[in-house]
């Protein structure tokens, strides 16, 4: 992965934010948001008792999902705040309704963080979750957590793996997809993607950005792309990891392409990532929640995904989006995948 392309990115972001202020599409009215981004009734019964050999997803918003696999609960890039910003009075704000608060979550066993940007790493949410779950983060990010009093942190490099059980966490450097797993363990692998990181204009690319694979022993495999552009690494992930049954792939904040193409996938790119991974079922993330500086209309990403599926003569159910608060999932039995 060529990290040189991201040098000076923080300045370019600030320049883009200034220039795009008058160019981005207007936000839909509340009536339109209620119609096209409705709040779904969360299926707490399914969350409390998911079927065996299943993966269930509940969309909290943006890239934040409650994921259940192998009898365990984890979160992807949890953000429960009204703003994704270091200050409460400016920065990307949440226009979509929050389906529920942190207090409604079931016991969270672990959290995976893709990178340090504020719309993926939220201090207030981190403080609320505290040291209850294990936090899996990329290289260089553990220090930030320790500074906030969070010590239950495992820092990982690309292709490093851990075995997660009820009693121990062990970091492995060997080929993660070959590790022997007992039925009481999950395997969590830090995998590459193409993005960048920063909390300030002065720490760009100081910490690692990553995607994540979570594999249930003898059961399904889940992939979280984090924030990423399309790049050849997804074919490599498929070769190394094997079958992926469910993926979260970003579809928003993709225009203008001249600026975004190196670090944000377009909806068309997202479908290509889905195909490169060989994912049985993919769900779009990183859209429909926060008022960001990208130029596309906030309701466009799912429409473009569906148009790309039609162009490729793929099933509309291969790559879908969810409603805020909605709970959906799959069951994997005998190599067959069925929707819940």
UniProtKB/TrEMBL annotation:
Coiled coil: none
Pfam families cross-referenced by the UniProt entry: Lactamase_B_2
Domain Metallo-beta-lactamase positions: 73-287
SUPFAM superfamilies per UniProt: Metallo-hydrolase/oxidoreductase (SSF56281)
GO molecular function, one term: N-acylphosphatidylethanolamine-specific phospholipase D activity
Top-rank taxon: Eukaryota
GO cellular component, one term: cytoplasm
Residues that bind an N-acyl-1,2-diacyl-sn-glycero-3-phosphoethanolamine: 118, 264
Gene3D superfamilies, A to Z: Ribonuclease Z/Hydroxyacylglutathione hydrolase-like (3.60.15.10)
Name the UniProt record assigns to this protein: Metallo-beta-lactamase domain-containing protein
The organism of origin for this protein: Guillardia theta (strain CCMP2712)
